Amino acid sequence: MSEHHGLRARRAVLEGWLDSNGLSHTLSASRYLLHSQVRSAIVTEAGGRILEAGAGASPFKYLLRKRGDEVVTLDVEDRQGGVDILGDIQDMHEVESSSIDTILCTQVLEHVRSPSRAFTEMARVLKPGGVLILSAPHLSMIHEAPHDYFRFTNYGLAALCLDSGFAEPQIRSTSGLLAFLVHPLSVGLMTLAGSWPGLRWPAWALNYLLLVRAVALLDQVLGVREMFPTDHLVIARRLTQAGI
Length: 244
Description:
This protein is of the alpha/beta class.
């Protein structure tokens, strides 16, 4: 096994351990800050019939179930079991038009070949006035290769919203340059030390205290988020048929 594949295998073990303990959002400061802001958006905006588009491991499933009347998950593959619809967000023909109150789509858009088609589909399945909660990266390492196609500015995300039938969106950066630069350090520490069972919890505690929580605080001051956003959070509502 090559060194590259060995590291990928260790990373897979680490991610599985984090997921099983509900700690995937604590890997790095950028993940922690993104998770916190998406969670806040769900609490304030989500409700009704919720579609989790590109659900993956569904890190927000319990919160979504508390906020919504029904939660439907959609993904191109069923990695952990329990995905309701096997489908692509660029063509969600399995979902009826105007049948969804809230869509949650986090860190998916960079992995689809046609983001504009994805936005058009999300607008189609939302009810008039329905809300889209979406996140996408601006600064990011290559991940899930070879299916890693795009990075997004706030201007690009706003254009995608407006061109596909959403009102003027709220867009904010979730973290900045400092969180982005420290992310590889957290990934390296946890991949190398955290892949050994006896070292996982000590490595996690060290990483969480020094490279996640402390860096998250510093990033608010030193992250230069307007110029170097790591990720963007979008909240947008589908226009009513009257365009209001």
